[in-house]
Amino acid sequence: MSLHIESHGSGAQLVLIHGWGMHAGFWDNVVPRLAQKFRVHCVDLPGHGASITPFTLSPFPFTLDAIANELSSHFTGQLNVCGWSIGGLVALRWAQISRQQVQRLVLVASTPCFTEQENWPYGVAEETLRQFATELEQDKVAMLRRFIYLMVRGSVNERELLADLRSRLFSHGQPDMNALRGWLEILRDVDFRAELPGISQPALLIAGECDKLTPPEASYFMAQTLPDARLVKIAGAAHVPFLSHPEIFVEQITDFLHG
To answer: What's the pTM?
Structure first.
């Protein structure tokens, strides 16, 4: 499978991985600034953005292993990986299976376990996830528009941020329906908590104080469980801190990767 990847700048490699139902264009506000320091690679995940056509022609197995291996095969040399939301799960798995390739991790509004469990109160209720799946089948466009509202709820400048996300949502085309189903299955089933102590790469965790989808407590847990991690909580941010607080976001990543 051929993934669509756009690259900018020069320096140490930094791969940006977007979230569910989105595309690489969501990083546009921070890419120019990051590209002043790094060779930035913006990936459209399978079934999203410009990676839709090859996905449609050749259906892709939706497992974290398959996606991480596919990403690994597209790059040479050592690199840093920044994953947002479900992209954080991909980044964690990539770091686990390609220890020599992935040098550092940045996990943005991420969680090791998306679904609420008996001993994990920081996830989305299983009933809510089933509702996501039902609404997706009924009206994909309406469901994704509702989803981006959940992404900004509670953020500073919530109304302006929502308008920004709405303008970006389908600017690179609509995501493939089978891909959305596959990613939802990953979100439903994945539980990476037990794997965290074995991921030795330095990690920066960026959490939005007001995040309703991946509560900051999930980032606190990862910060305590990963062997080498630092946590940054951004006040006034929800699920898209790189859009609501781009200056802080770029500063934190730059300091971490140059540290």
So the answer is: 0.96
